[in-house]
Write a structure and sequence with these properties.
Length: 137
């Protein structure tokens, strides 16, 4: 088993990047790899320690194909840290200031079997491409 670790710099201030993860409207507009969508009416987020994040990813090609997510926040520090757990997996997202008003995001998720980690990495990278577009508006 291994943890997936992704570091990515976004061209937006830390508060805006954090908000994209905790605002239901924004999360619905970018989350999920290309080819998947998150219907706004499926999103419920209570971004406090002990709170929840629920939503359903739906395949654009076959809407019968869905992937529901139900997570509990274990730790929330506004604009700095989100730690959650879902289906025995832990996800930690750190938000760091970078020069020029940019944000360095460090995502750690796992544990994954090694053969699944690459697909998870691809999914996050694809999602982050959609997040880049949202943040550039």
């Amino acid at each position: 088993m291994t943890d997936l670790v992704i570091t990515r710099v976004f061209d937006a201030p830390r508060e805006l990047v954090y908000r994209a993860f905790v605002d239901p409207e924004q999360l619905a507009s970018w989350f999920g790899p290309v080819g998947w969508s998150v219907p706004r009416d499926s999103v419920s987020i209570d971004a406090v320690t002990g709170g929840h994040q629920r939503f359903t990813m739906v395949s654009d090609e076959d809407p019968a194909l869905t992937s529901p997510v139900e997570a509990t926040f274990l730790e929330v520090i506004e604009n700095r840290l989100l730690v959650g757990e879902s289906a025995g997996m832990r996800l930690s997202i750190e938000f760091h200031d970078e020069e020029g008003g940019r944000t360095r995001l460090v995502l750690t998720q796992g544990p994954y079997p090694p053969e699944v980690e690459g697909g998870a990495r691809e999914g996050w990278s694809s999602s982050f491409t959609k997040l880049d577009k949202l943040l550039s508006r």
